[in-house]
Protein: AMP nucleosidase
Amino acid sequence: MTELDERSHPFRDSHQDVAVAQTTPDTAQTRAPAYRLAFTDTEFLLREELRPVRLQLELLKPQMIMDARGIRSTVVMFGGARIPSPERREGARTPVLAALSHYYDEARRFARLMTERSLKSYGAENVICTGGGPGVMEAGNLGAHEAGGASIGLSIVLPHEQTPNAYVTPDLCFNFHYFAIRKMHFLMRAKAVTVFPGGFGTMDEMFEALTLIQTGRMRRVPFILFGPEFWHKVINWQALAEAGTISPEDLELISFVESADEAVEIIDNWVVPCP
Structure:
């Protein structure tokens, strides 16, 4: 975003009045909270009654920045923050996490391949979008960085705050308070969704996106799960269909792959199904 918005109306803009307000004489009246300009009053904006405004702002800010960058479509990468890179596998919390470390490399390679395609559109299409953290997210941003392209990181404030990984493009590194708005930004431009092994957060993101597609609230896109053995072990997909809690055709919404090349092939050959 530019420092001063371009505008065609004749009214004074907000930047001018903020600058003037900062030079106001110091009096009992000007020190009073009531005197502050509402849109510069952090205490006011954080009030309980202002939650609808904060939700709107959190939706609008990343939208405006990505629009200004000309980003039209993204490739989303969900996955576990605890999955280490292969060179760090010895420090993994469990043997299973250590064994899953090869998906770090697959995520890195997949992001690199998709970013090479993104560069052909000057960074407008197929931009890698991760949660901005460690593990699979780091691998995704790293792969995009290695390809020489931009990538998005959608971080969120947690009780134990994590610094965004070093490979997110700085001016596409966002921070959220509301999980719901963050999820919207994951999917608003999604041309494909990939899901690597992960825990509660990964599953939450995966199932919410699947539900939106299943119910027709989001158009169908390639929905690719890396690691068939992991996903079939932790979720009995067929049992859901046999129980009737999902339809058998709902299983067709998902593709399982082992490698980055398989995932890229699915995306490259994707044909939008007839409604």
